[in-house]
Design a protein that fits this description.
337 residues, inorganic pyrophosphatase (n-terminal core), Diaminopimelate Epimerase, Chain A, domain 1, six-stranded parallel beta sheet, six-stranded mixed beta sheet, binds manganese (II) ion
């Protein structure tokens, strides 16, 4: 029986979400131990939770594994606050699992995935070179998020997501569609609306906000101490930083100040000077200015309202002079009226 269904569905010609769901279920047996492989980002994490839910009571065991270290603080916040059970793929004996599923990714995306013989692939990325031999393949590249696809599976199965799962799926759709400013289908909107009433949106806000370490607050002190104001422009050099991301946080913070046209924040990371640019993007282009100032020395560019430059320190020919906020100001204004 199971075999018959499996054959019927393996071609991928499903008439409805229900048929697709049954096609997916048909490849599993009660004794199966299932490994779900993800490249851990919010969408993949949410999808893995949803698949785990779909397979509850249908298989013996489900484990979610990821090869990448989760570094992004927003994603760490999501995993910790939702208590998402995860294993590092390197610590898992892949061969001991009777079924392997990959979600929000494809076997060709990572060398570690290429070595695994997957039974099911569910994804929304463009098909790289097709022809996967998995029993069940559901790839819909037009979807804004893979979580939208999984919401369709859950609804077809009449499984209402828990608050935690709904929160994960809701956040995933927000992230992958960049709050619906990126490619998205009506289907993404429908899933989003469905989750809206179930998800904890305060928690979602917390995931979105959590992008700084407590140990990095000291850089704000330095930035404010070194802050220089002139002609509706703010300049500050923060000195050596552990991660250049904090310079972005500081620039975004200073960009909240009223009547400021430009914000310039610099810092040193490794052997490089990193400069973050902010402006209103109206009749100005941060990207172009960054290029004019630093284009010849290193990498520089961005958008109208935000830009970034990274320059090897030795290219700045500072001699034994230290880089300061005044140096930053001089460099910036050299190319401004
Ligand atoms: Mn995705």
């Amino acid at each position: 029986m199971a075999n018959k269904i499996y054959k019927k569905y393996r071609k991928g010609a499903w008439k409805s979400a229900r048929e697709r769901l049954h096609g997916f279920w048909a490849i599993f047996e009660k004794e199966d131990t299932v490994l779900i492989c993800i490249n851990a980002d919010p969408d993949a994490l949410a999808c893995a939770l949803a698949i785990k839910r779909l397979l509850r009571y249908r298989v013996k065991q489900v484990l979610i594994a990821h090869p990448n270290e989760i570094r992004r603080l927003n994603n760490v916040a999501m995993v910790e606050r939702l208590k998402i059970p995860l294993e590092r793929l390197g610590n898992v004996k892949v061969q001991e699992f009777s079924k392997k599923v990959i979600v929000d990714s494809q076997p060709t995306h990572l060398p570690v995935f290429e070595k695994i013989d997957f039974d099911a692939i569910i994804d929304h990325h463009p098909i790289v070179n097709g022809g996967y031999s998995a029993s069940f393949v559901d790839i819909r590249p037009e979807y804004g998020s893979c979580s939208t696809m999984l919401v369709e599976y859950l609804r077809a199965a009449n499984m209402k997501p828990s608050v935690a799962m709904a929160t994960a799926l809701f956040y995933a759709i927000k992230v992958d569609t960049q709050d619906f400013s990126q490619r998205a289908l009506l289907a993404d909107g429908i899933s989003f609306r469905y989750l809206f009433n179930i998800a904890n949106r305060n928690l979602v806000k917390k995931f979105e906000l959590a992008d700084m370490r407590r140990s990095e607050l000291k850089y704000f002190n330095i930035a404010l101490q070194n802050l220089k104001y002139s002609k509706a422009r703010l300049y500050t050099h923060v000195g050596r930083v552990r991660s250049p991301d904090i310079l972005v946080n500081i620039a975004d913070f200073l960009n909240h100040v009223d009547k400021i046209d430009w914000v310039f924040v610099s810092g040193i990371h490794g052997e490089r000077l990193v400069v973050i640019f902010r402006c209103d993007g109206y009749r100005k282009s941060a990207g172009k200015l960054a290029e004019r100032i630093f284009g010849a020395l290193g990498s520089a560019g961005g958008h109208k309202e935000s830009a970034r430059a990274e320059v090897p320190l030795k290219k700045l020919s500072l001699g034994d002079k230290e880089f300061t906020t005044n140096t930053l100001k001089r460099l910036a204004t050299r190319h401004m009226k």
